[in-house]
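User: Fold this; tokens only.

Assistant: Input:
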Amino acid sequence: MSSTPQDDVDPTLAYPEPPASPLWHRQGPKPRPITPEQQRRNCELLLRAQYTPRPRSPRTTKTLAEAS
């Protein structure tokens, strides 16, 4: 019998991490860097998309059976 108590051993730490998928490693040419103007526009669009509420279609008071 071992001298270490088994209650405080985390079973998730007993196995090594699996290797990364080959899909994570980029093959081929590197992407073109974007210009500062493109970076500024992307930032503006991202901020607008995050904080602008989406337009909602007005709800009708009729049920589907009444509408047809």
